Amino acid sequence: QVRLVESGGGLVQPGGSLRVSCAASGFTFDAYALGWFRQAPGKEREAVSCINGNGETTHYAASVQGRFTISRDNTENTLYLQMNSLKFEDPAIYYCATVTFGCRPVSALTGGYWGQGTQVTVSS
Question: Is 56 helix (H, G, I), strand (E, B) or coil?
């Protein structure tokens, strides 16, 4: 049974940093591209970033490029998203997901299996 469990969300001030994690089980972790998606209240869910199975290929949404870093630890079956220089437009529920058809430019990403999400709030 595929399971993705996000953690690490919370409240941070503008300009601050936060790292969210996603613990995976129930599938061959390093065989799957993974991604982070987010959904803010009243908005559609959007793809944030993806990483391929060996970690060598990544893609980012333009809105987070240079501020967010996706990574994975295939020995721990864990996906990470390091978020720096957080802005008022970043708050959302952040979801990790397996990515169907591999890591590619985020506008083309499609999630497969999903976690339950973790809330990120930016407030002064």
Answer: coil
User: CA–CA distance from 57 to each of 70, 71, 73 (Å)?
Assistant: 10, 10, 14
Residue-wise pLDDT for 31-65, tens only, equals 999 999 999 999 999 999 999 999 999 999 999 99
Contact between 118 and 94 under an 8 Å Cβ cutoff? The reply is: yes
Instruction: Yes or no: say if 90 and 122 are a contact pair by the CB < 8 Å rule.
Output: yes
What whole-number distance in Å separates Cα of residue 24 and Cα of residue 11?
Answer: 24
In single-letter form, the type of residue at position 91 comes to P
Helices (H) and strands (E) in the chain, counts: 0, 11
pLDDT in tens, 61-110: 999 999 999 999 999 999 999 999 999 999 999 999 999 999 999 999 99
H-helix or E-strand spanning residue 58: strand 58-60
Sequence-distant (≥ 6) Cβ neighbours of residue 55 within 8 angstroms? 71, 72, 74
